[in-house]
Each structure stands twice: as C-alpha cells, then as structure tokens.
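Re-run requested by the PI after the first attempt was lost when the workstation crashed. Everything re-entered from the original request form. Ligand of interest: glutamic acid.
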Amino acid sequence: MVAEKDAASNNPEDKNDVLKSTQTVIQLALEKLGYSDEVFELLKEPLRMLTVKIPVRMDDGKIKVFTGYRAQHNDAVGPTKGGIRFHPNVTEKEVKALSIWMSLKCGIVDLPYGGGKGGIICDPRDMSFRELERLSRGYVRAISQIVGPTKDIPAPDVFTNSQIMAWMMDEYSRIDEFNSPGFITGKPLVLGGSHGRETATAKGVTICIREAAKKKGIDIEGARVVVQGFGNAGSFLAKFMHDAGAKVIGISDAYGGLHDPNGLDIDYLLDRRDSFGTVTKLFNNTISNKELLELDCDILVPAAIENQITEENAANIRAGIVVEAANGPTTLEATKILTERGILLVPDVLASSGGVTVSYFEWVQNNQGYYWTEEEVEEKLERILVASFNNVYEAAQTRRVDMRLAAYMVGVRKMAEASRFRGWI
Ligand code: GLU
C-alpha cells in the first residue's frame, strides 16, 4: 500500500506537502510497473515552470504587481493541458503538483495530452470585474510564448470561470492575430465553449460515485451524502446527487457548513450561493468544516481544497465511500487509514477527470469547427468515465493496491512509454 513507502518522509512538514506526496506515489507506481529510476527523475518535476510578474493598474489608480505561474509537466504524449487557479494561497510547489495531477488525469482517461497548470497569487473576492479582466489579460501576455492550441491549453480552476476564459482567449487571439478558440477551454458557449463543460467535473464525480456505490452495495436512492465545498464541482454535484434521489445532509463553503439529517434544500442553496460558492454566511446555526467531514454518512465528497482529510481526522470519518472531487484533499497517511478501515477511496486523479475530459471535447470541436449536442457530450463522457473507473478498480484488485496507487499506475504508463519512444529515457 502507498503509505508503506511513504516512510521516506519523516519530516512532519512533508506530510501536507502535495508535491512530495505525489512524488512518493509516482515513484511507487513506477516501481510496481518495473520502470527504472531515470523515469522517476524525468517525471518527478514539471519539464518547464515559468514564473511571471504581472503589473495591474487597480481601480484606485495604483499599480499592483501580481505573481503568476505556469507549469508544464510532460508533453511527450501531446500538448500540456490544465486549469488556471486564482487564489491567495497559490504556491509554486502547489502549481507543480497540480500539473503532475493533470498528467495523471489525462493518462487515466486516455486523452492525447500531458499535464499543465497555472496559478496567480491573488484574491478575486476582493477585486473588481475590471481589475480581474486586466489581471487575466496581463497573465496571458506574460505566458503567451509558452502556451497555444498545440502547446499548452489552459482552462478554469479554483476561482476562475468562463468570463475569465473569454478575456484570456480574446487576449491570446489579439497576440496571435487569429481567432484562437482552441487556445483555452471552459469558454462561454458563444465563444466556442462546449455544452456540458460547466457541469463536467461534477458529472464525472457523479459517475464515479455511482460506480463505487455499486461495488459497495450502496443504493444511491436515499443514500446520505456530505459535500465539502460549494464551488463549481461541489454545488453541481450536490444538485446531481439530490436529483438522483440521494439525501444531501451536509454541505460547506470556506466559512462553515450546514447540516440537516433529513436532507438540505439544495435548490434553495444553489439559488442563494454567490459566484465564489459562498452560501453559509446567510445562516446562523452552522457547523465547522471539521465537524462536517466527520458526519455520519454513506458518501463523503471533499470538493474544496487540499489536505482536508489527514491523519488527525481520518479515524473519525464515518462514510462508506470517499470520492475526491477536489485536487489533493486526502493526505497519504489518511489514505492508508481510510483503506485499512475498509472505506473505498476514489482518488482525485480519477474522480475529478470529467472536467478535463469535456475540455478535450471542447478543443476537438474548436479544431474541427463542428459542434456537438449536449447529449453527444454526455454520452461520450459517460462512456469514458465508466471505463476509466472500472479500469482503475480492476487494477487495484489485481495488483492488491489501493485505488490511488492503481490510478497512478494507470495514469503514468502512457507518459512513460511516450517518453521512452521519443528517446528521452
Ligand atoms: N481545472 C480542472 C482540473 O483540475 C480542469 C482542467 C481542464 O479542463 O483542462 O481538472
């Protein structure tokens, strides 16, 4: 199991270091697959990492200089692909880890991409619309030389949305002197976005929950679901689970959680949430995020940020299945504890791959200039996610490893093979 090898890291600080954790699992996956150490040397860090300074004129007339990153993990399989996050806690290390996770996701759902990721240290909750536009355009100007429809294709991530993608696409098209919809995905429909992209991550998570529930003999109808995070993934997921007949008994945002053992009124909460997924501020009797994670339920979905289930609270998790809609919400120690307790954990690199899958569909539609219906997108997403879930599940059974390690083994293979054929290793 993953955590045996994790003893390599005895420094307590490393335990929440998402880059170190992902490197640990990659190394183990490569060993299990019989690859040499050089392959790990190549894959443990992104091939390229660009740090940029973005001067932005704020509404008060002053200039503020923001720091941004773009990491390109590995482009042996194809152009790199992955979102851009706007968040005050963005770090270089985190962006690197996120780019590696994107490579794994693309490998797991078998897309012709490697992984990339971007981030800007900023708090969009405190910025005006115009400031955000200037920042988005400034970022694209700063990274324009290393991105492009056949090089590296960005997309939305935490606190970025289709409007931000639209500004970025427009800025890139001006630089490129061509209309370049395939430069970025997650765009509004009228600018070449795809049907189903906005709900894609949550749809993918829903499919994984359904498949995992079948394996565990849990009936979705009436199942008690807790969702941490009410952003793009969490809010749509709560809605889909509610519509499927499950009882969503807990949800949360960055400020706290809501709990009702009889089921929350999800449509009302969706209606009242702001564009950053905040809703709990409207209520008095909230619970903490810590309490929310420990609620008695059948299905727990961390859909917020990293390092939420750790060795401190893993023993208190009372769910049959944990499905990671966020990137990196469970530490390796916690993965081990949950697995030993018989809880089925569906890892982020599999469960949250619906977003990039429909981003790929969007890019394909942009490239061919011919657009698909919502039904076509959904049917293709369903087929890919069901096959990917079962592929990883079976790998876990045959190799007798947990689903995180199995997912890494599936995800890393194509990248390692492509790098070998290219003569890189
Ligand atoms: N940001 C999303 C993720 O972490 C989607 C990336 C994409 O669509 O390229 O998977």
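Saved to the shared folder this time. The pocket of glutamic acid is lined by residues 81-83, 105, 155, 157, 185, 327, 352, 355-356, 359 (CB under 6 Å).
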